[in-house]
Amino acid sequence: MSTRTDELAGGLLRHIHEQIAASDLTYEEFGALKQWLIDVGEAGEWPLFLDVFVESAVEQNAFKGREGSKGTILGPYHLEGAPVLSAPFELPRREDEQGERIVMTGRVVDASGTPLPGAVLDAWQADAEGLYSGFDARLPEGILRGKVIADDEGRFEIRTILPAPYTIPTEGPTGRLCKAAGWSPWRPAHIHVIVTAEGHEELVTQLFFDQGEHLDDDVAGAVKDELVVKPEVGPYAPERSFSYDFTLATVHASTPDTAGAVA
C-alpha cells in the first residue's frame, strides 16, 4: 500500500465529503454531478479540465520558492520538434499572416546574472484569431512555432505577431460548467516559452500583454504580474517591441536536470 496514494486520494475524498456537507448537496444535484463527470470522460475533456482548472495550482505549489523567473502552466498546445530559427529569428508564418508585428528580445541568465550562452527558447503561440497550428486544420503545420538559441552573451531575439485571446472549447461539458457557474471561458493573449540551459532547471512560462483583455479573468488562472509585458515603439520601429530577461535556477543535487538538447 502506498501511503502517498492514501494521503492524496484520501485527502481529496475528505475534502469532497466536507464540501457535500457544507453545501447540503441533494441526491438530485449528485445525479447531475455524476452525469457531468461521465460526460467529461466521454467527450475526452479530462485533459482540458485539468489543464484549465488544476494545473495552475500544481505549478504554483511545485515551484514555490524557486529562484529565478516566474513560470506558469504548459497548457495543451505544445508540440515537439519545432524548427531552430536562423536570423532574422522570425516564427514561421503565412505570407498573408494577419496581426500586428512585434519583436521580443532579452537575455537568459542564471540567478547571479551571468549569461547562459546556448540557452534554448522554444516559443509557440496562437495566431491573430486565437488558433494554434497542429490543433486547427485551418492553419498550416508549424505556423508560429520555433526555437531560438541564445548567443554568447545569453541574448535572443524573436520576431512574431501579437496573438489574440481565445476561449477554451465551450460546446462540451467543460464549457457548460463555465456557463453554469458564470465563469469566463477566455484566455488572454500570450506567448508560450520553454527556456532550457545545461545545468539549470527548465522554465515553462507564458508572457501576457499589458492592457490586453481577460488578464483579470483568465479561465486558467495562469496570469502573474511578473509575466505581463508592454510592447512599445522603440529600436525596431515601426514594429513595437519589448524586452524580457529569463533567469534560470541552478540544478541542485536533489533536482533532476530537465534541460535537453535541441530537438
List keywords for this structure.
24% helix, single chain, alpha/beta, five-stranded mixed sheet, 22% strand, 263 residues, disordered C terminus, Protocatechuate 3,4-Dioxygenase, subunit A, 5 helices
Radius of gyration: 21 Å
Distance between the termini: 39 Å
- Separate helix tally: 5
Mean pLDDT: 94
- The residue ranges in which pLDDT falls below 50 over 5 or more consecutive positions are 258-263
CATH topology type: Protocatechuate 3,4-Dioxygenase, subunit A
Q: Largest sheet, if any?
A: 5 strands, mixed
Which sequence of SSEs, written as H and E, runs from N to C? HHHHEEEEEHEEEEEEE
Overall helicity: 10-25%
Task: Specify the CATH class.
Answer: Mainly Beta
Number of domains: 1
| Extended strand count | 12
Overall geometric form: globular
Going by CATH, the architecture would be Sandwich
Task: Give a verbal description of the structure.
- The chain has 263 residues and is an alpha/beta fold.
- It has one domain: Aromatic compound dioxygenase (Protocatechuate 3,4-Dioxygenase, subunit A, Sandwich).
- Helix content is 24%, strand content 22%.
- The chain contains five helices and twelve strands.
- The strands form three sheets. Strands 1, 4, 10, 11 and 12 form a five-stranded mixed β-sheet that branches. The protein has a five-stranded mixed β-sheet with strand order 3-2-7-8-9, with no helix packed on it. A two-stranded antiparallel ribbon has the order 5-6.
- A hairpin with a 6-residue loop joins strand 7 and strand 8.
- The protein is globular and about 65 Å long.
- The C terminus is likely disordered.
